[in-house]
Amino acid sequence: MTSDSSGLRAVILAAGLGTRMKSSTPKVLHEICGRPMLGYVIDAAREATGAKPLVVYSPATSAICDAFAAEADSALQQKPRGTGDALRAALAALPDSVAEIVVLSGDTPLVDSESVIALRDLRVSRDACVAIGSMVPDDPASYGRLIARDDGSVDRIVEEKDATAEEQAIDLVNGGLYAFDAQWLRTALPELTPSPVTGEVYLTQLVEIAARQGQAAVTWSRNQAEDAWGLAGVNDRVDLADAESAIQAAILERHMLSGVTLRDSMTTWIDATVEIEADVTIEPNVSLRGATRVGRETLIKSGSQVVDSRIGQGCTIWASVVEGCELGNRVKVGPVAHLRPGCVIGDDCEIGNFAEQKSTRFGARSKQHHFSYLGDAEVGEDVNIGAGTITANYDGHKKHRTVIGDRAFIGSDSILRAPVTVGEGAYTGAGSVVTRDVPPGKLAVGVPARIRERTAPPGKPEPGK
Q: Do the domains 8-233 and 238-453 sit in the same CATH topology, yes or no?
């Protein structure tokens, strides 16, 4: 458990599976712009309190613990008996030094730290035992209704399933964000009783307990149209898409304000985890995902997808797929190339039409222009790969490596049957099938290829001379 010096901790409720998502994946682990939605709530809680939040999970959502082990502490709610029981599990896991608790819902990815801080400050300023974040949505269905007074004090919260028809007509709803005086909370939690309708224990009953004790429970609400609280929850895939659209719009705006040109933001997708330097230009129909970083003055042209890759400065990627790779500076890729995971491309390289690489190191200034495949290869600097070249890296049982030395020239339609080494300055003739090593400076020709002395073209020196 994280120690706390300020006396303020955040609790995030994430024990529900989310049946309306119709998924075996816990609701809060569904991704929004490349991150599980719970990650956004954890960020807001940590920024507001300065400490790791405590996430309450259930056996059905235990995957949360592995996904966020470094970002949050956890407490187990053994049985899904409602939000009040989840809060009991959280309080049992928190040290007595915690004097204030803010409670967030794990399925509200649009919540921000400013909202959490504002609610906590409201509770303190009104000397209230609890403050509730509320809102007036376009459709209040599925939300608990607040029975509130004109001065912002709240008498009780009625859950949708327990509400009468008159209560369901109320449009002021519970946003699932709370601030509590921890000492009062410790005394009030034992008074919670199960709902006669559902049998669940609701933390919202704490508001009614506070009112009965003559304690203050207060709220601050805003209309959804001007909502700065971002309390709307994700209940199903429609809500998930709405939240993702809002977060994606914020991501694109942030990058544009940081100096990135988006030719068509409507057709550009950038995950929350992507980093882009200034003066990068992104054309329409581009997708940047995962742990991708893009260096200054790079141009990513239409139709490209970049996933979990580091792109250097001044590169051009055109209608190509780059995944799990590292590109140096001034690299040109495409159109219609595919760099698969494990490739490291040196500075000033060119990888052209319908060229593919996998688990390959490609040395500086080397060229692979068209219709070729390099798999499990080590390619030196200033190497030319002719059209139609293939490294035959798989023998039906395991993969083998191909090594090509600096300044080698691989002729068109060459097949290099791994494991094989083509030495520095060596050549392969067009259509050759190379089944054994080619010494430096030699020429391999034929099927299967035989080693010959290479005669330099007129005016060009022999290798090494």
A: no
Q: How many residues does the chain have?
A: 465
DSSP state of 283: -
Question: Residues with Cβ < 8 Å from 387, sequence gap 6 or more?
Answer: 369, 370, 371, 372, 412, 413
Q: Which long-range contacts (CB under 8 A, 24 or more apart) does 71-78 make?
A: 71/39, 71/42, 71/46, 72/12, 72/42, 73/1, 73/2, 77/15
Please classify residue 422 by burial: count the beta carbons closer than 10 Å to its beta carbon, then call 0-12 exposed, 13-18 middle and 19+ buried: buried
Question: Residues 159-181: what's their mean pLDDT?
Answer: 89
Quote the pLDDT of residue 140: 84
397 has a pLDDT exceeding 90: yes
Tokens of 364: 């500086």
Residue 376 confidence (pLDDT):
98
Looking at the domain 8-233, which fold is it? Spore Coat Polysaccharide Biosynthesis Protein SpsA; Chain A (3.90.550)
Q: Residue 67: name the closest of 106, 22, 10, 112 by CA.
A: 106
Would you list the domain boundaries of the chain?
A: 8-233, 238-453
List, in sequence order, the alpha helices (H) in 152-234. 165-168, 182-188, 205-212
Catalytic pick among 30, 255, 338, 370: 370
| Closest to 77 in 3D by CA, of 195, 203, 186, 237 | 203
Q: Which residue has the tokens 């190509």?
A: 320
Is 370 catalytic? The answer is: yes
Domain formed by 238-453, architecture:
3 Solenoid (2.160)
pTM summary value: 0.89
314 vs 465: CA distance, rounded Å:
35
- What is the Cα–Cα distance from 381 to 379, expressed in whole angstroms? 7
Q: Measured between alpha carbons, how far is 115 from 127 in angstroms, rounded to an integer?
A: 18
Answer yes or no: are the C-beta atoms of 140 and 254 closer than 8 Å.
no
Kindly tell me the sign of the dihedral angle through the C-alpha atoms of 43, 45, 48, 50. Answer: negative
Alpha helices in 52-129 (DSSP H): 63-67, 83-93, 113-125
Cα distance between residue 406 and residue 101, in whole Å: 63
Task: State the average pLDDT over residues 178-199.
Answer: 93
Cβ pair 271, 291 in contact under 8 A = no
